[in-house]
Amino acid sequence: MEDLKRQTGKNRLEGGKSRMAANKLTKGQMFFLLLQSQVGIGILSLPYDVFQKAESDGWISIIAAGCWIQVMLLVYVGLYIKVKKDHFHALLEEVLGKSLGYLTAILYVLYFLSVAVLILTLFNEIIDIWVLPRTPNWIIGIIMVFLGYYLGKESVQILARFNVLVTPILFIMFLLITYALKDAQILYLLPIGEAGVKNILLGSREALLAMLGFEILLVILPLTDANNKKKLKYVSLSNIVLTLSYCYLSIINFMFYSPEELKIVPQPLLYILKSFSFQIIERTDLLFLTIWVVTVFTSFVNYYFLAVSAARPLVKSSGIQRKLPLIFAILILTVNFFTNENNVYLVDKVSKVITNSSYAFVIVIPLILLFAAYIKNILRKEKIHEESM
């Protein structure tokens, strides 16, 4: 009888562990969630943006940005090593205290929402120029937000599976742009390093903005079923893949356009593809944009999910928690409607405010959290040592 009870208890424990594992992300899912969150709007204008600062050395700026991101990935993983919590809100309260942690969590929710709005606004802008100039932006916005709501209200596992499912289309995007190598002029890349260290670093700032999305790790790291060493390995691998991919795309652009041309082409990738045609494909740029729409949608829905996920612990009412996805969807649509009413100046101003504020949420606050956690650990150890004496 005693053996039976012991066995029953063991089975329950194992069952509990298996259910916890089922509610966790795999290492691969974390990899693809991170990758898809970073690929999106910025890919179209990245070569142009870095060229304005570092000219043909812009590819070096992208590598430098990848190095900065790697440092922040170490900070994120280190933060959860120092503070062993199972979600981001609990980490904030542990390090900053209940009141300040609650306030910081609200700020992160607003940040995630604002980035989702920005992605949707810039997406509408590109679609309006290149694909559907006569279609009202609010119609495109409604479709995007409806699909985002449908997926974003689900669990992180379902979101991750979708990100994994659509990842192969990224290879088609890179395959299409590779065709431009037939007209490439490698001499346009020379001399390497001519822009100087200062301009290359300024270019890395532009590249970093195009590669944002890695802050998703603040939410999904504790939701991943792996030890910290493996987590760091997979997020680093994702960063390497993204950095090299962006570097590759930029080099193709730098070899295709002359320096004078690249100064005046805001979406160089699309103009390259527009110049190509095949027997069965007349507008290659539209084929590329069709694929690109899916990558933008994954970025949008990932940020939408982050906002909902970060807001749930802040609300005590279970009824409101269930309605949060709908509330945020309506909020995003409303803000997007007012920023899209042919007000280019407003869109540009909002874009600058959000991108500049991203440094605080992506870099400054995580560094402060890590430093505060480190200090708290030291003080805790000193207190334990004093009590034991």
CATH class reads Mainly Alpha
Order of helices and strands: HHHHHHHHHHHHHHHHH
Strand content: under 5%
**Multimeric organization:** single chain
Shape: globular
Kindly, what is the distance between the CA atoms of the first and last residues, rounded to a whole number of angstroms? 46 Å
Task: Label the structural class.
Answer: mainly alpha
Given the structure, what is the number of helices? 17
pLDDT averaged over residues: 87
For the record, what is the CATH homologous superfamily label?
Amino acid/polyamine transporter I
Number of domains: 1
- CATH architectural group: Up-down Bundle
CATH topology: Amino acid/polyamine transporter I
β-strand number: 0
The main β sheet shows up as:
none
- What is the share of helical residues? over 70%
Radius of gyration: 23 Å
The low-confidence parts are: 11-21
What does this structure look like?
- With 389 residues, the protein is mostly helical.
- It has one domain: Amino acid/polyamine transporter I, CATH 1.20.1740.10.
- Helix content is 78%, strand content 0%.
- It has helices spanning 2-22, 27-38, 42-54, 58-82, 88-96, 98-130, 137-152, 156-166, 168-178, 197-210, 217-220, 228-256, 259-262, 268-274, 284-311, 318-339, 344-388.
- Helix 3 packs across helix 4, helix 4 (58-82) packs parallel to helix 17 (344-388) and helix 8 (156-166) packs antiparallel against helix 15.
- The model is unreliable at 11-21 (pLDDT under 50).
